[in-house]
C-alpha cells in the first residue's frame, strides 16, 4: 500500500521565530494517518529536528551536495543531513536546476549521495512551458528519469519518491489538470517496471486547499509537494487533511 505523503518545501523563507510558529500551527498533522515532512532551510534543520522529535513529522532537506565531504565551501553533505535527522531530501528541484546549474548528471550524483547517506531522495522532474508547448513533456521527463537510472539503476529509482513538478506550475497559481497529472504518473510508474507499484509519485506546482482534493482523487497521485501553501499553517493542515481522503492506495 502507498501511504500518502505530503511534503512542505519552505524554500528560502522564515526566521527562527516564524519557523517555531509554523511548527506549532501544523502540530495537528501528527494525528493524521498519512506521512508529513517539512523541508526547512539548512540553518533551521537542527532546531526543527528537535521540535518535531517524537511528533511523527519527518525532516527533509531542500538539496544536498554531490560530493561526500571536504573542501566545498558552502555545501552540505548527505551524511550531515542524516546526522541531524533528515529522512528525505529533495533532489533536482527545478529552481536548483534552473537557477543553480544543476544538470541531470549532477542531480544523479546527488541522488546517489542521498542514498549513500541512508536518506530517501525525492527526485523532482518536470517540463517548462516551452517544452510543454512543443509537446515534449514526456521526452523531458523520460530524459530526467533515465539520467538517474543510468547511474543508480531503475530499482533504486523505484525505491525513491518521485515528484512531478511542471516548472510552469510552480509558484504561478497555474496547475496541471488532475487528468494531465494522472496521465503522466501512469507513464512514470510504467517506466519504473515491476518495482513501480510501490513507488510514491507526488505532484507539485501551486498545490492549495482548493485543488488538493481532486489531485488526491487520482489513483496514481500518492501525495503532494507543497511550496507557498506550506508556509501557511492553516492551509497546509487543510491539504494534509484532504490527503487522508485519498488514503492508502492499493498496488
Ligand atoms: P509552489 O511550489 O507550491 O509554491 O508552486 C512547489 C514547489 O516548488 O515544490
Protein architecture, described:
The chain is of the alpha/beta class and about 250 residues long. The protein has one domain: TIM Barrel. The chain has 11 helices and 8 strands. The chain has helices spanning about 15-25, 45-50, 80-85, 95-100, 105-115, 130-135, 135-150, 155-160, 180-190, 210-215, 235-245; strands at about 5-10, 35-40, 60, 85-90, 120-125, 160-165, 200-205, 225. The chain has an 8-stranded parallel barrel with strand order 1-2-3-4-5-6-7-8, surrounded by 5 helices. α1 (about 15-25) packs parallel to α11 (about 235-245) and α5 (about 105-115) crosses α7 (about 135-150). The longest helix has 16 residues, at about 135-150. It is globular and about 45 Å long. The structure holds 2-phosphoglycolic acid. 2-phosphoglycolic acid binds next to β8.
- Beta fraction: 15-25%
Molecular shape = globular
Report, as a whole number of angstroms, the end-to-end distance. Answer: 6 Å
CATH topology: TIM Barrel
Radius of gyration, whole Å: 17 Å
Overall CATH architecture: Alpha-Beta Barrel
Instruction: Give unreliable regions as ranges.
Output: none
**Strand order in the sheet with the most strands:** 1-2-3-4-5-6-7-8
The count of strands amounts to 8
Classified by CATH, the class is Alpha Beta
Helicity, as a percent range: 40-55%
By CATH's scheme, which homologous superfamily applies? Aldolase class I
Count of helices?
11
What structural category do the secondary elements indicate? alpha/beta
**In total, how many domains does the architecture comprise?**
1
Q: SSE string, helix = H, strand = E?
A: EHEHEHEHHEHHHEHEHEH
Biggest sheet statistics:
8 strands, parallel, barrel
- Hetero compounds: 2-phosphoglycolic acid
Amino acid at each position: 500500500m502507498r501511504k500518502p505523503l505530503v511534503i512542505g518545501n519552505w524554500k528560502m523563507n522564515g526566521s527562527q521565530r516564524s519557523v517555531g510558529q509554523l511548527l506549532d500551527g501544523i502540530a495537528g498533522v501528527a494525528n493524521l494517518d498519512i506521512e508529513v515532512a517539512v523541508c526547512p532551510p539548512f540553518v533551521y534543520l537542527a532546531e526543527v529536528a528537535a521540535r518535531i522529535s517524537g511528533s511523527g513529522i519527518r525532516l527533509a532537506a531542500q538539496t544536498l551536495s554531490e560530493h561526500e565531504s571536504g573542501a566545498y565551501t558552502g555545501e552540505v553533505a548527505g551524511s550531515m543531513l542524516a546526522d541531524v535527522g533528515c529522512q528525505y531530501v529533495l533532489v533536482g528541484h527545478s529552481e536548483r536546476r534552473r537557477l543553480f546549474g544543476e544538470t541531470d548528471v549532477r542531480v544523479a550524483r546527488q541522488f546517489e549521495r542521498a542514498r549513500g547517506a541512508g536518506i530517501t531522495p525525492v527526485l523532482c522532474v518536470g517540463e517548462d512551458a516551452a517544452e510543454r508547448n512543443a509537446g515534449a513533456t514526456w521526452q523531458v521527463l523520460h530524459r530526467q528519469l533515465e539520467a538517474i537510472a543510468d547511474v543508480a539503476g531503475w530499482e533504486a529509482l523505484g525505491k525513491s519518491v518521485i515528484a512531478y513538478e511542471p516548472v510552469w506550475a510552480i509558484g504561478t497559481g497555474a496547475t496541471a489538470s488532475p487528468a494531465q497529472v494522472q496521465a503522466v504518473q501512469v507513464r512514470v510508474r510504467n517506466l519504473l517496471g515491476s518495482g513501480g507499484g510501490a513507488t510514491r509519485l507526488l505532484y507539485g506546482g501551486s498545490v492549495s486547499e482548493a485543488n488538493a482534493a481532486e489531485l488526491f482523487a487520482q489513483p496514481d497521485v500518492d501525495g503532494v509537494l507543497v511550496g507557498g501553501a506550506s508556509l501557511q499553517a492553516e492551509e497546509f493542515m487543510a491539504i494534509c487533511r484532504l490527503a487522508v481522503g485519498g488514503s492508502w492506495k492499493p498496488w
